[in-house]
């Protein structure tokens, strides 16, 4: 399951890149405003309006992006908690899953059936481990669109030194390094107790991919990613008690304990 999560992460990031490079985007009208026709256009317009709202209140688009990032992380936080619990369950049931794979190594269907039984016993939902990624990808892509199409943001400087619409400049190189570093740190903290070889590979692959995206896309998107990573690192630190908690017991064991 950890492998499936890793593959999904890569897939979703590649989808964003492919949609961007092939021009599968929202567009502007003749007046320079974002075309809000269709569901996607309305969503991109909503994100752009959010950036403009916080900019008008504060006067800095970089800070506006930070606030939007914080809001997104608050929305995703309950899903992240589910993801943490799912990862904890996965760690505790690995010995049982290994026995199942060994016992039914020639019968993939039986392996899947027995694996699902284990998930049901522990109340684990494999989909919950992927929800934070799935929820954030449309928001990330919409943010890219709103940054790329917002006529006001294109000429704005963050803290008077960083052009938020700049691509492939020195500032983007610095942001790429920071985004890779913070991605590595938050992944390292999340995978601290994981012994999965695929997860360890992702520990280095994901920062490299994020650095490439940051280099290619507007600087504002790099800020979003760095802010998001920092918030995730903070969340990971304050939820380490949950991560270090005792492994969950199967539902049958809990029920038996109550009946005594």
From TrEMBL:
Keywords: Cell membrane, Chaperone, Membrane, Protein transport, Signal, Transmembrane, Transmembrane helix, Transport. Residues 61-240 form the Membrane insertase YidC/Oxa/ALB C-terminal domain. One of its GO terms (molecular function) is membrane insertase activity. Pfam families: 60KD_IMP (PF02096). InterPro entries: YidC/ALB3/OXA1/COX18, YidC/Oxa/ALB_C, YidC_ALB_C. One of its GO terms (biological process) is protein insertion into membrane. The chain crosses the membrane at residues 61-81, 126-147, 221-238. It is a multi-pass membrane protein. Residues 1-28 form the signal peptide. It is found in: Cell membrane; Membrane. One of its GO terms (cellular component) is plasma membrane. Coiled coil: none annotated. PANTHER family: CYTOCHROME C OXIDASE ASSEMBLY PROTEIN COX18, MITOCHONDRIAL (PTHR12428:SF65), OXA1 (PTHR12428). Belongs to the OXA1/ALB3/YidC family. This is YidC/Oxa1 family membrane protein insertase. It comes from Tumebacillus flagellatus.
């Amino acid at each position: 399951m950890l492998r499936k999560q890793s593959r999904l992460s890569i897939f979703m990031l590649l989808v964003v890149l492919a949609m961007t490079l092939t021009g599968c985007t929202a567009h502007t009208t003749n007046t320079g405003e974002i075309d809000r026709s269709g569901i996607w256009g309305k969503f991109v317009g909503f994100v752009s309006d959010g950036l403009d709202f916080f900019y008008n209140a504060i006067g800095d688009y970089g800070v506006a992006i930070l606030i939007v990032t914080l809001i997104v992380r608050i929305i995703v936080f309950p899903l992240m908690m589910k993801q943490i619990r799912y990862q904890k369950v996965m760690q505790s049931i690995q010995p049982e899953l290994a026995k199942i794979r060994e016992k039914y190594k020639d019968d993939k269907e039986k392996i899947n059936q027995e694996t699902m039984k284990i998930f049901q016993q522990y109340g684990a939902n494999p989909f919950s481990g992927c929800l934070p990624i799935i929820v954030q990808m449309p928001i990330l892509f919409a943010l890219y669109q709103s940054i790329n199409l917002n006529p006001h943001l294109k000429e704005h400087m963050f803290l008077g030194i960083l052009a938020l619409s700049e691509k492939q400049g020195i500032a983007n190189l610095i942001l790429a390094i920071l985004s890779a570093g913070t991605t590595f740190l938050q992944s390292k903290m999340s995978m601290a107790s994981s012994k999965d070889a695929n997860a360890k590979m992702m520990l280095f692959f994901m920062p490299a991919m994020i650095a490439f995206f940051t280099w290619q896309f507007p600087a504002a998107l790099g800020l979003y990613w760095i802010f998001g990573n920092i918030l995730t690192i903070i969340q990971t630190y304050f939820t380490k008690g949950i991560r270090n908690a005792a492994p969950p017991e199967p539902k049958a064991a809990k029920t038996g304990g109550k009946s005594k």
